[in-house]
Amino acid sequence: MHVDIGAALASAADPGVERATLDDLDERVAAAHERIEQGRNKGEFGYASLNLPEATDAETIHDAVAPVADAESVITVGIGGSALGAKTITEALAEDPGSHVVLDNVDPEHVRRTLDGLSLADTAINVVSRSGTTAETLANFLVVREAYEDRGVDWTERIVVTTGESGPLRALADQHDLPTLPVPEGVPGRFSALSAVGLVPPAILGIDIEGLLAGGQQAADDLAPSLYDSPAYAYGAMAYALEEAGATVNAVMPYAERLESFGEWFAQLWAESLGKDGRGQTPARALGATDQHSQLQLYRAGHRDKVVTFVRPRERADVSIPDPDHEDLSYLAGTDLGGLIDAEYEATVASLPAADQPALEVEIDRLDAESVGELLYAMEAACVLVGELADVETFTQPAVEWGKNATRALIRGEATDETAVIDERERLRIGETESL
Ligand SMILES: O=P(O)(O)OC[C@H]1O[C@H](O)[C@H](O)[C@@H](O)[C@@H]1O
Q1: Which amino acids bring their CB within 6 angstroms of ligand 1?
Q2: Where do the catalytic residues lie (predicted)?
């Protein structure tokens, strides 16, 4: 992975990072790296995530999915960290990205249409929940199960469950004697892409999961006590310094359709890990070149509160543009779509510092298993580094738990502190409407 920080230095943009700031920051990066290494060595909660490339046993995953390896497609039932890693990986690497369907919402119309559109006899079910209690996941699992039964397909023969050692999902799996894989110890969901949590659908679809782990290991080996020697830390340190300088929004803009979900995965990683104590960059999502024609206006000329993170593979598929046979289009002659999207990338990256706005560049060699594994791992390490520099609790998400508890209490009809807040809000809302 290659990171270019030139367009985010103070000499190029405002907000930007002074070279001297970066040199000072480098000493803090060294201290943070030491803390991270200590956490990894002791397998401490959260830090253990960065050991996954060596801790994950690909063979165990292959064995667990063997009974469903003939499936043509996979339906994942999970949410957040229990869905986005697998979604990102299969979107980037599956021959047919449509072969992995993710049910990570409980929109009834969507769930019904998704199930109606699948040949369930040829579809494996991948149910994932670290806690085994998440309402959306458990509800969708029950709906999926019933759909299989209604169509006369034995769901117990088509399923793999990944969950913790206890909880309702574990109990259901034991009750039906389902093949199960454990969630890794000490690893929050959003950091678990390179474990069974993210690797079951790729394994079923024949994606090179060993390559993904090898790429992750490469990124782990590239961590070093200086941001100048470590692309992951260079990215993290710059993101931190830019936030300090006022770039409170981080818009991630991959120039590859197959990396669109990477933006979604990154958004959870950044938001849940770093959105604490009144700080944390707000992740925004864009796709190049498409969003040049919708969001770029704001990125260049809007508030000076953003950094755009550009992401692209250096190699692209070869699709030539046919002879335009029209003078006005002659500039396209002899080019290909890869050349065009790369020209758009170069032009757009340059357009930001030209408007005094910062940009960071992240490039991977190509869209293969090694490079995708490397990218995911490096962004996780960058996130952990930012958490150290900002001194926040990177590996918890207490503000999300509030909503989860409130939902459960509302559905059960229980009166709790959370539902009291909801009742109060409802009362105020009604009062406001009546006074209009
Ligand atoms: O894996 P689960 O326990 O079902 O949790 C799924 C998701 O639930 C919550 O929203 C958490 O904030 C996420 O971090 C987590 O990934």
Answers
A1: 79-82, 129-131, 134, 137, 189-190, 272, 397, 400
A2: 272 (proton donor), 293, 404
CA distances from 77 to 174, 227, 409 (A): 18, 38, 22
Q: Is the ipTM of this complex over 0.90?
A: yes
Residue of 45, 82, 137 to test ligand 1 pocket, by largest number of atoms within 8 Å of CB: 82
Global pTM value:
0.95
3-state secondary structure the chain: CEEECHHHECCCCCCCECHHHHHHHHHHHHHHHHHHHHHHHHCCCCHHHHHHHHHCCHHHHHHHHHHHCCCCEEEEECCHHHCHHHHHHHHHHCCCHHHEEEECCCCHHHHHHHHHCCCHHHEEEEEEECCCCCHHHHHHHHHHHHHHHHCCCCHHHCEEEEECCCCHHHHHHHHCCCCEEECCCCCCHHHCCCCHHHHHHHHHCCCCHHHHHHHHHHHHHCCCCCCCCCHHHHHHHHHHHHHHCCCCEEEEEECCHHHHHHHHHHHHHHHHHHCCCCCCCEEEECCCCHHHHCCHHHHHHCCCCEEEEEEEECCCCCCECCCCCCHHHHHHCCCEHHHHHHHHHHHHHHHHHHCCCCEEEEEECCCCHHHHHHHHHHHHHHHHHHHHHHCCCCCCCHHHHHHHHHHHHHHHCCCCHHHHHHHHHHHHHHHHHHHC
- Do 234 and 370 belong to one domain? yes
Query: Looking at the structure, do residues 28 and 145 belong to the same domain, yes or no?
Result: no
106 falls within a domain: yes
Is 298 within a domain?
A: yes
Interval between CA 402 and ligand 1 midpoint (Å)? 12
Mean pLDDT (whole number) for 270-276? 98
Q: Over the stretch 122-157, which tens digit does the pLDDT of each residue have?
A: 999 999 999 999 999 999 999 999 999 999 999 999
Domain match, 254 and 380 both? yes
- 130 and 159 in a single domain? The answer is yes
